[in-house]
## 1
Amino acid sequence: MRSGVLQTPLAYLKGVGPNRAEALKTELGLETFGDLLQLYPNRYLDKTQYYKINQLQNSGADVQIVGKIVNLKTIEQKRGKRLEASFVDETGELKLVWFRSHKWIRENIKINEPYVVFGKVNRYGNSFSMPHPEMELLKVHQAGLKISMQPIYPSTEKLSAKGITNKVVSKMLQQLFLETKADFNESLPKTLLDELKLLPKPESLLNIHFPKSQELLAKAQFRLKFEELFYVQLQLLSKKAARKKKIKGLPFKEVGEQFNSFFNNHLPFELTNAQKRVIKEIRNDMGSSAQMNRLLQGDVGSGKTIVALMCMLLAIDNGFQACLMAPTEILAQQHYNGLKDLLLQMNLKIALLTGSTKRAERTFLHNQLENGNLNILVGTHAVLEDKVQFKNLGLAIIDEQHRFGVAQRSKLWHKNEIPPHVLVMTATPIPRTLAMSLYGDLDISVIDELPPGRKPIKTVHRFDSNRLKVFGFIKDEIKKGRQIYIVYPLIKESEALDYKDLMDGYESIAREFPQPEYQISIVHGQMKPQDKDYEMERFVNGETQLMVATTVIEVGVNVPNASVMIIESAERFGLSQLHQLRGRVGRGAEQSFCILMTSHKLSADAKTRLETMTGTNDGFEIAEVDLKLRGPGDLMGTQQSGLLNLKIADIVKDNPILKLARHHAVQLLKQDPKLDKPDNLPVRRTYAELVKDKAIWGYIS
Ligand code: ADP
Ligand code: MG
């Protein structure tokens, strides 16, 4: 755009003025011409469609109706006057309502003449009303320009109350196009426009606001979505490239004695092909001179731990220490026990550090870490404390990354002069292309195969009213020597309530499964860590057959003999949480079961979640449904990558465009990493504009 016209404050646009500009700013965050231009319609209304009053169904629908006003009256109310009109067609009656501008309407409206009214309808029982309709005499309407698709803009109640209706916004945009003569800069290179047959920028903007046809609208949408995703990808890729270039790593050149001896003599099972492939990827990455920052995705039970161990052995082979961090004490303890067993025959020092490690032991540990006697440290957040210093930390692994924040990840970076390689592991899989975009600056490895011989878990949904049958089933399983989890929801906001649920549940279970025949463990968030551990250990050792717990049990816990997972109030859990919980069983040779208990009152989403769980064991499939239900907001990384602030694209629905955009962003950076080819000038300019306040620009310029 010619010298910054798009930066002009909206107040200067004819027909806006200071008051409206202020309202647009507070309500929609619009400040400049450019912002208004990017206020894309939420949807388009088919103006060729006319409704009959008896066809109206839902509140909130925008409709266009032909009819007549048969009477007009003012109604006095405590909260002020309102003007009401009866609007009829041959099928029924609709109330038109005004809370202001009464005088103007009284004077101008024509009774008994055909009008076209347009607006949102509200439903009260079986009658409908339309507040502040847009109106036009039918004969004017018929003589006027035919717009077949009317854009509907995002709005708020305050805006409409201030008279900034959809029509007014549309007028503002008309004015904007007039004043600027739609002389907008192209932001994509010509070669790309040609190759993908994209609509040029000015035409796209024009057709998004004033579609000339369905076809041009579709083209405009495609072009603008592509552009938006293209620039998100370009930023992510540049950031990653900048990191790789700038941040030196510790090259692990050796595959040495520890790795080989473990691989040849102590591996308790044959690695799956996926595990082998992933270890290779990580090895290559750590062998180069750039720091590794990698995400390892693998469904619950896919065997990430052994991969973590072998990577740590590589670090040790190259003269470095390694640490493994887990989000809970229980999990850290399990990792520690598991790794210690695996390393039993090897001459390596491994230790555990958590919040409840005793002072004296802690001091000893700190020393061992600093003088390099300790090879592997397993722990919780306690590992991040400043007091914890390594002699030479070469690899930091974070299990169940979604529990840790980015800030914590970066703390690890400072544990060594040259930052250690970082591997984050997660069992919350997300579709791969999405992952690449979300985690942008991370590399990704995926274990997409379960160890052989696993029996798929049988999952069923049962209503609370069938509880007795479920108890009977549990008893049968216990007779066969199995162990059972019973999990209650935990929602932070109402911890006291959840605690009560858990305790009520515990009591009824204790009555149903009396001692001494049955032993029950209980674990919840309000217990002291050592009490938790004690209870957990009794269950791990098979001293108790039932484990009643809140979701503290969710992450990582491994008790192969446990074959039944009962989830209480399953409708209150999210899909990924349900899947994680289910992953606690199915770890041994026996057939495992997951029983989802709910009341009869289920929302549509809850039903979908339950059906998904009973329908599949595939974590990736579940993740896709979850994404569709919840949107990407809860996924780690969406904030940082800017994928949530998208103005027109939707990363779930527009996934194919996302892939395309990523592909072309990769190509572009490959061919012209500094963006100095003439054809790429539009990219260089747009990019500079986007990252004006961000440090990553330094990489390209
Ligand atoms: P997760 O990926 O959920 O962390 P784990 O690493 O805890 O999974 O592994 C789950 C179980 O599978 C463990 O008992 C582990 O010993 C076992 N396991 C891992 N890899 C294999 C394999 N290749 N063959 C057989 N069992 C395996
Ligand atoms: Mg694990």
## 2
Amino acid sequence: MLEDLKARNLAWARRKTETDAGFFKRLVGQQAPQYLWIGCADSRVPANEIVDLDPGELFVHRNVANLAPPQDANYLSVLQFAVDVLKVRHILLVGHYGCGGVAAAVDGKRRGLVDHWLHPIREVRHDHRHELDAIVDDRARLDRLCELNVIRQVRNVASDVFVQDAWARGQDLSVHGWVYSLANGLVTDLDVTVSNVAEMQG
Ligand code: CO
């Protein structure tokens, strides 16, 4: 199996340089992505492929259920580097319908460490329990929770001090909430974009 991956890697690298001889040389020189993607680790949600971007064009952070927890040093390190050093213009918080992490957060089963990781989703469910309880269909209720989770994570990112400081010094930066559909490959913009301090407070 691994030999197959190595062969695929070789073929891929060759294809890249066939169409653009300087492709990898340029990337060695610098990376200057305009976007930070914060998405789910799910293998069916490959960041670059979904938005059809090449290496170098998308800075990516993925974890189970696309969370942006304000105490997570991994996510915070990525966020600060993207905002302060790369100076990305857009942060895309991308959830997906049918997220196993979101489902696992609220199914009542015990799994171990991941139960702690997924705790923020149970808080989202609690905060929106009236809306969610009114949805009869189980799948539709979970899909709505996926959306509400994205909206909460957008607020986490937008309220972070790195982002707040960037806005205070006039940096052009927007935080967006998207949901990806495994069923048709399309993203939906949840229209919760935050681009300055006033929008965050509003
Ligand atoms: Co997921």
